[in-house]
Design goal:
489 residues; alpha+beta; Beta-Lactamase; 5-stranded mixed beta sheet; 4-stranded antiparallel beta sheet; 11 helices
């Protein structure tokens, strides 16, 4: 409706301007024509009456000449005719309303016209027609007429023109509004509603505008756009599902690769409790022990079985591919469980995993399994970075950090920082910018797939955080996971 209103106002303004200019020009023309008619009438009266007066004057009948002027004055209703003497004194009633220069013009036989206002402010047209008497011009006919009738006619013309203009403007405005609402407003509302449906994700609805104009063409193009968007959305949905599936498969493959790394350590970890179980069970079966000793041996068997069950369950939970689900988790608990799971692998490589910090609760919203995988990848990466053994330090602290501008903005955020520091050889400067790329690795064959850091990067990014790496060749590396506090993904 705003567009229709603007169009209507523009049409009304343009039409009003045209009609106003036309009315103004018409009034000027009417006024000019009426003035010309008055001058022409004065000229005709003066010429005809002047000739008769001059003949009578030359015949010596001055009284009859003046009487003829009075008769003509009575006959003409709208004009006033009187005789004036050009050389009359100021007190003479027959004195002309002329300046000396104008008197000279009339004396020379020229007609003079002038417009004057009377005491009431009303304008009059005075025409002086020279009348030759006794061979020379000593008098003239003064023909005067008021502009009042002309002014009244002009006023009436202005009122009628204004009324006609107003009626035309109102009529045209109504027609423009009705036509605008029907041809512009109605289809525009339909277009806006369709655009909102498309914005809300509804690509199935179609516009049925039968107009063969630009708006109809726009509606048809919008229908075509909806169809293309629908097809693109279906392709995007399918591609997104395939990409998510592929991503989950990659993460699961990385998780299984870590499980493979843990296998030997787990086997060694299970060896001791299995030997204990076997020995105690043999003693009970052979009858070497009985009574309280048998009960004590059975209790040891149960405890060692529970220990082995816990180790196997941790490994299975880590390897299991589950649906992502965020919940409030204490990162210290997740870190301790992850370190416990990786301890056999670390021990086999002469690596000690320690904790740094006061271990105060650091609760954030994360997917426990996915985040444990991200942390495990960083710890395994640190273990593999020290082939001759060493210490991997895991710590959690609160700090303000400025995230990468390209992904998170430029202002500092209150974050929980979880870091994994190793004492390895560090990362070469040229490789730092590539460490989070899929399948990029500087490790020996069999040491890694190049997916661990890439998977960790993706998991942390999905949690609204980022990973930073600080490294110095020959002095180890420190990978830091930053999770903004209050972020709920």
């Amino acid at each position: 409706m705003r567009l229709v209103l603007k169009l209507t106002i523009a049409i009304v303004i343009a039409m009003s301007a045209v009609l106003a200019v036309n009315a103004y020009l018409r009034v000027l023309r009417e006024y000019s024509l009426m003035e010309s008619d008055m001058k022409r009438d004065h000229h005709e009266i003066g010429r005809a009456l002047g000739a008769a007066v001059a003949d009578m004057w030359r015949g010596g009948d001055e009284a009859r000449a003046l009487e003829l002027i009075e008769e003509a004055n009575i006959a003409e209703k709208h004009v006033l005719i009187r005789w004036v003497w050009l050389d009359a004194s100021a007190s003479d009633p027959h004195r002309a309303r002329l300046t000396p220069a104008e008197i000279g013009l009339v004396s020379s036989g020229q007609r003079v016209e002038r417009v004057e206002e009377d005491s009431s402010g009303e304008e009059h047209l005075y025409t002086y027609v020279p009348v030759p008497v006794s061979g020379k011009t000593v008098g003239a006919l003064e023909v005067s007429e008021s502009f009042a009738p002309a002014s009244e006619y002009i006023r009436t013309t202005i009122i009628r023109t204004a009324a006609t203009t107003g009626l035309l403007v109102v009529l045209c405005a109504l027609i423009a509004m009705v036509v605008g609402v029907w041809l512009v407003g109605r289809p525009m509302r339909a277009l806006v509603a369709q655009a909102r449906r498309i914005g809300a994700g509804d690509f199935s609805s179609r516009l049925d505008l039968r107009q063969h104009d630009e708006i109809g063409k726009l509606a048809r193009e919008m229908n075509g756009m909806s169809e293309k968007l629908r097809e693109a959305n279906e392709r995007l949905t399918a591609e997104t599902a395939a990409r998510i599936s592929a991503l989950e498969q990659v993460r699961h493959a990385d998780r299984l690769a870590t499980v493979g790394e843990l296998a030997a350590g787990i086997a060694h970890e299970l060896g001791t409790p299995l030997n204990v179980v076997s020995g105690r069970a043999s003693m009970i079966v052979s009858g070497d022990v009985s009574g309280d000793e048998a009960i004590k041996g059975a209790r040891v068997v149960v405890e060692q079985a529970q220990r082995m069950t816990k180790i196997i369950r941790q490994l299975l939970d880590f390897a299991r591919q589950g649906t992502p689900k965020k919940s409030s988790q204490d990162l210290w608990v997740v870190a301790r469980e992850t370190v416990a799971l990786l301890s056999p692998l670390a021990a086999r490589r002469d690596v000690v995993v320690t904790f740094d910090g006061d271990q105060a609760p650091a609760v954030v919203e994360v997917d426990r399994g996915h985040f444990q995988q991200a942390l495990a990848n960083l710890i395994v990466n640190g273990i593999q970075a020290m082939p001759r053994g060493g210490t991997v330090t895991v710590g959690i602290e609160q700090e303000q950090a400025r995230p990468p501008t390209a992904n998170h903005g430029s202002h500092a955020l209150d974050c929980v920082r979880l870091f994994v520091r190793d004492q390895g050889e560090g990362i070469a400067p040229w490789a730092v910018e590539h460490v989070f790329e899929p399948f990029f690795t500087t490790k020996d064959i069999g040491e890694g797939t190049g997916l661990g850091l890439s998977v960790s990067y993706g998991i942390v990014h999905e949690h609204g955080g980022w990973i930073d790496v600080q490294t110095e060749p020959g002095h180890g590396s420190c990978f830091s996971i930053y999770l903004p506090r209050g972020d709920r993904g």
